């Protein structure tokens, strides 16, 4: 029960991010939760150390380096321009983000796409005079859903591929998860459209972007 309570508090603090006048970062909340389970004996220090997977840590580090290099080089901005210049309506822009970021997250990992995709969608929101909220939500839906179909799409899949004795992990993941993932990206589009259909995001109350 103690572990469940600590987990609940961690999730609640991540959602709120503030206690009184104290503003908390996610890493501070996670560190506090880790210390809490250590002090309460829910996990020993030795087991906590052994639970750290070096393969995943190195993989994350490598993908973050690649993502940051792509962003600072300006290549991501160039690709974003080529990809999104054909989006003429809010619906098409949302669909482009869902499919583009969703598919890329399967190869560059969802955390990497979150880092390099956020400034891109904020720029798109400013350029097209739409609220950044819907585009940020679209990005979140895209990278969370799209990363499922690849063994390197997210750290959880990587652990399954490494320790789950999955033969030909890329082929196996795509075989069973590619179609369901693409289907769920389309469902995400419908969900976003339903939630924001009554809000006029573009200039002059039109659904067309300028």
Structural overview:
This protein is mainly alpha-helical. It has 2 domains: 2-50, no CATH class; 66-205. Helices cover 74% and strands 2% of the residues. The protein has helices at 2-16, 26-39, 45-50, 54-73, 75-84, 90-108, 110-128, 132-146, 155-163, 169-196, and strands at 18-19, 22-23. A two-stranded antiparallel ribbon has the order 1-2. Strand 1 (18-19) and strand 2 (22-23) form a beta hairpin. The protein is globular and about 55 Å long. Residues 201-210 have low confidence and may be disordered.
Strand order of the largest sheet: 1-2
Uncertain regions: pLDDT < 50 for 5+ in a row? 201-210
Overall pLDDT level: 85
**Fraction in helix:** over 70%
Overall radius of gyration = 20 Å
Q: What structural class do the secondary elements suggest?
A: mainly alpha
Number of strands: 2
Shape: globular
- Helical region count? 10
Into which percentage range does the β-strand content fall? under 5%
Please write out the topology.
Blueprint: H1 2-16, E1 18-19, E2 22-23, H2 26-39, H3 45-50, H4 54-73, H5 75-84, H6 90-108, H7 110-128, H8 132-146, H9 155-163, H10 169-196
Antiparallel strand pairs: 1-2
Helix pairs in contact: 1-2, 4-7, 6-7, 6-8, 6-10, 7-8, 8-10
């Amino acid at each position: 029960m103690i572990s469940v309570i600590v987990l609940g508090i961690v999730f609640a603090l991540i959602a709120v991010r503030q206690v009184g006048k104290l503003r908390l970062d996610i890493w501070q909340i996670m560190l506090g939760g880790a210390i809490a389970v250590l002090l309460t004996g829910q996990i020993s220090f030795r087991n906590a150390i052994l639970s750290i997977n070096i393969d995943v840590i190195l993989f994350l580090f490598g993908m973050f380096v690649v993502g940051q290099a792509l962003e600072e080089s300006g290549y991501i901005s160039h690709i974003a321009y080529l990809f999104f210049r054909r989006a003429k309506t809010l619906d098409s822009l949302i669909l482009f983000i869902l499919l583009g970021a969703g598919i890329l997250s399967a190869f560059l990992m969802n955390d990497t796409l979150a880092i390099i995709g956020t400034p891109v969608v904020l720029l798109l929101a400013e350029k097209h005079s739409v609220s950044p909220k819907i585009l940020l939500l679209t990005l979140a839906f895209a990278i969370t859903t799209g990363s499922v179909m690849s063994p390197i799409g997210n750290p959880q899949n990587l652990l399954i591929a490494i320790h789950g004795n999955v033969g030909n992990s890329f082929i196996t993941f795509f075989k069973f998860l590619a179609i369901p993932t693409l289907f769920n990206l389309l469902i995400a589009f419908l969900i976003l459209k339903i939630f924001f259909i009554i809000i006029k995001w573009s200039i002059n109350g039109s659904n067309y972007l300028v």
